[in-house]
Amino acid sequence: MTREEMRGVLISLLKRLTKEKKSITLDEIYHHFKELKKNKSIQFDKNLLDEEIHLLLINNILMRSEAWGMQPNWNHYALTEYGKECIEQDCIIALDPEGYLQQIKRSIQDIDPVIFEYLSESIASFNKRLNLASTITLGVASEQAILLLIDSFCLFIEGSCLKTYIDKLNNEKFIRSKYSIFIEALKKLPTEVKRALPNNYEIIIDSIFNCIKMNRDDTGHPKGGGKDRSLQGANLQAFRSYLVIIYQLIKYFGTAKLREIDT
């Protein structure tokens, strides 16, 4: 059993047991994994299991719980208020940050290292409840993805009737203005090109890019933004789909030149 599989089993166990009662014991967790080993011949590393339990503790998902009205001890655990929120919302970011990153890598095997580094920092900050840091680093990851998309688009329209947009894009310094020019050029693509692109790509990219950027700008200037944890969690959850569509566009723009389609 891999670490990711072990984490998934552990989270499922917490979801089930914490609905039935207020706390769970370490013995119950061990017993569940031993039963898996016995009945399904699933092997697991107890040291890794202990590490995963420890991660839930230091990330404020679990806390020590009272046993029989006595002092909290290390054998009894309960969900924190934050942990309950994560369980109810099935928040993979908080409960399974490594699993989220693995999903990203599986979906986008050639992901840009800058995007991945800043996204990793954003998730780590989110789990430590450093919302401002998480907001800013996710904004950087988003803008890097858009810049890569614009670069691939420039190569795609080179030599075509839309080539005048290349100078406009290259001469613009600010990401907001560059993005606006890019969206304008996208709308002028031939119908047959648009049909080959992912469904609703404009709506998905535009809505998520603007939401992430607005939150990042309010945080970085500063204007008091970036404090809404629910909004940042939603942005992180949406970022995977956003990034997958961006890379689908990059791949398409890298397969041909617009002038070849025009002729």
Describe the model.
With 263 residues, the protein is mainly α. The protein has helices at 3-20, 26-40, 46-58, 81-89, 92-95, 97-107, 113-127, 131-157, 164-171, 175-186, 191-196, 201-220, 229-253, 258-262, and strands at residues 23-25, 62-65, 73-79. Strands 1-3-2 form a 3-stranded antiparallel sheet. It is elongated, with a radius of gyration of 23 Å. The mean pLDDT is 87.
Assembly state (oligomeric): single chain
SSE order in H/E notation?
HEHHEEHHHHHHHHHHH
Main beta sheet strand tally, sense and closure: 3 strands, antiparallel
| Radius of gyration (Å) | 23 Å
Distance between the termini: 55 Å
Strand content: 5-15%
Throw out a few tags for this protein.
single chain, 263 residues, mainly alpha, 3 strands, 71% helix, 5% strand
Characterize this entry briefly.
The chain is mainly α. It has 14 helices and 3 strands. Strands 1-3-2 form a 3-stranded antiparallel sheet.
SSE arrangement:
Layout (H helix, E strand, L loop, with lengths): L2 H18 L2 E3 H15 L5 H13 L3 E4 L7 E7 L1 H9 L2 H4 L1 H11 L5 H15 L3 H27 L6 H8 L3 H12 L4 H6 L4 H20 L8 H25 L4 H5 L1
Antiparallel strand pairs: 1-3, 2-3
